Amino acid sequence: MEILKVISLLMAYPEQTTVDNYELMREVIIADKNIDDSNKLLLTNFIDRLAKQDLLDVQEQYLDLFGRGSSTSLLLFEHVHGQSRDRGQAMVDLLDRYQQKGFELSAKELPDYIPLFLEFLAHCETEQSLEWLNEINHILAVLEERIHTRGSHYSDLMTVLLSMVDEVESRDELKVKVAAEEADHTAEAMDKVWEEESVRFAATDAGCSQNNSTLTSESYSEEVDIKWMDAMAPENKAVKDHTSKNQSSQNQSVGG
After folding, report:
1. CA distance 145 to 142
2. What is the rounded CA–CA span in Å between residue 40 and residue 151?
3. Helix axis angle, 37-51 relative to 155-162, nearest 10°?
């Protein structure tokens, strides 16, 4: 599905090579048979907005949106497992799925980065691609709403993806929950994250001589299927924010 490749490129960290291929992307969008005219217009308008801006400005806006806090993170498992051990196993399982299809990642790429996931789906059979895309529809819906509340047209990319899958249940309830969320991208929120990290590291150092539990290769030895869950369910919401510095570096490493 070439349309997924186009959306993958548009959702990734903006690069000059992407800008150079805008016209080709328009051609793919217009010819696509998986989305209707209204969604084709969303994508072409999205490209037109980017094309009118300076690339450095677009990159700055991108990092501000996806690199501050975790609520709009483009890492799928951030919205499912947070920083729990389950996230590591889910990464291993997803990477195994990629490798089974002959899809190899570089050392810098995180397998749950949504643009990368979409690129993988673009090389799968259409039926399988849509099935996998449907499995993350709740995550896409949450991101669509959160990005929309931030006033960014990147939410349009989620809208187009959602048009290809089953309708997400309880959308009205989801909007209410997102509206009530505390912003995690403000300077105050980021300072709080730094303070919490400082306390956590201090506590870890203080107890390093004790027999603390550690993660080893055996910790992930049991085979577990990947499970995509409702990202808004209390037990599945991310429990820890990333700092702007760490998240930005991840986005640039995978996207660029």
Report:
1. 5
2. 20
3. 160
